[in-house]
C-alpha cells in the first residue's frame, strides 16, 4: 500500500504533501463481515498532529 500526495482537483489544484507518520492496517475478516463489506476493510490513520488529503494505492 502506498500513501502519497493527493491528486489535484478543481477545488484544490495544489494539494499539500503529506507529512508525519501514517499507519495502515487491514481489518480482520470478522470486522469486515460485521461491517457488511464483501472484501477488504483497510484503515488509514493519519498522524496525531494533523493530516492532509492523500491518495491511497493498493500494490
Explain what you see.
With 59 residues, this protein is mainly beta. It has one domain (2-8, 23-57). It contains 1 helix and 4 strands, in the order E-E-H-E-E. It has a two-stranded antiparallel sheet. It has a two-stranded antiparallel ribbon with strand order 2-3. It is elongated. The mean pLDDT is 92.
What's the SSE blueprint?
Elements: E1 2-5, E2 23-26, H1 29-34, E3 42-45, E4 54-57
Antiparallel strand pairs: 1-4, 2-3
- Specify the overall morphology: elongated
- The portion of residues assigned to helices is 10-25%
What's the main sheet like? 2 strands, antiparallel
**Share in β-strands:** 25-35%
The beta-strand count equals 4
With strands numbered from the N-terminus, the spatial order across the biggest sheet is 1-4
Mean pLDDT: 92
CA distance, first residue to last residue: 5 Å
Rg result: 14 Å
Give the assembly state of these chains.
single chain
Structural class: mainly beta
- N-to-C order of helices and strands: EEHEE
- Helical stretch tally: 1
Overall number of structural domains: 1
Stretches where pLDDT is under 50 for at least 5 consecutive residues are none
Features:
two-stranded antiparallel sheet; single chain; mainly beta; 1 helix; 27% strand; 59 residues; 4 strands
In a few lines, what is going on in this structure?
The chain has 59 residues and is mainly beta. Helix content is 10%, strand content 27%.
Amino acid at each position: 500500500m502506498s500513501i502519497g500526495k493527493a491528486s489535484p482537483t478543481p477545488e484544490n489544484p495544489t494539494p499539500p504533501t503529506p507529512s508525519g507518520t501514517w499507519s495502515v492496517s487491514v481489518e480482520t475478516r470478522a470486522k469486515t463481515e460485521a461491517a457488511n463489506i464483501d472484501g477488504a476493510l483497510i484503515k488509514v490513520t493519519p498522524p496525531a498532529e494533523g493530516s492532509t488529503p492523500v491518495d491511497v494505492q493498493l500494490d
